[in-house]
Amino acid sequence: MYDRRDKDQGPGKAAPKPPASTAGGAAEAEAVVFVCVTCEVPLTGPLTRLPAVPELPCYEWWNAEEPGPSPSTVPSGFYAIETEPYGAPLVVSEVSAQAMPRYGTISNEHGQYLVSQGPRGNIVVNPDDAHGLELQHVSSACCGATPTGGMNQLCACGTFVATLCSDCCCPYELHLSADRVRAVGP
Ligand SMILES: [Zn+2]
Ligand SMILES: [Zn+2]
């Protein structure tokens, strides 16, 4: 004889749990594409955020056989947020300070140091990861572009969207303007 106790399913089946939408970790590593806010054209490939702008790669540009850009500060496929002021305008500083992050010092004709009072929050990317941008020089340079005059990269729609730094003696970086571009999901 069997003592058959029919086990029912209990009071209501457990509803399937909705997937946790805020499962940290994986979400942070999701790549985004930056588009122009004016015309929505993609300006970069998919990029993953770094926690901070990396240290400047060690590179002896003065020993380089040919003038040209240094190795990119940000590796290909990544971006980082610059927390310090960057680009124009440059203002006189009473103390010795580099003009902007990773850039070195600049002084005016009176020997006074100049420092950036430009916007914070630029999105720093490898210039080789951007496309569709046209360089319009706004400050003098010997073989590339310099950021001291402000934004120098035009979107196809004619809007300045970024500042390229690519002269041989400078860090090789493209700074997307935080209020001229927008991150969209993959
Ligand atoms: Zn545009
Ligand atoms: Zn140069």
Automatic annotation (TrEMBL):
<feature type="region of interest" description="Disordered">
    <location>
        <begin position="1"/>
        <end position="23"/>
    </location>
</feature>
<protein>
    <submittedName>
        <fullName>Uncharacterized protein</fullName>
    </submittedName>
</protein>
<feature type="compositionally biased region" description="Basic and acidic residues">
    <location>
        <begin position="1"/>
        <end position="10"/>
    </location>
</feature>
<feature type="compositionally biased region" description="Low complexity">
    <location>
        <begin position="11"/>
        <end position="23"/>
    </location>
</feature>
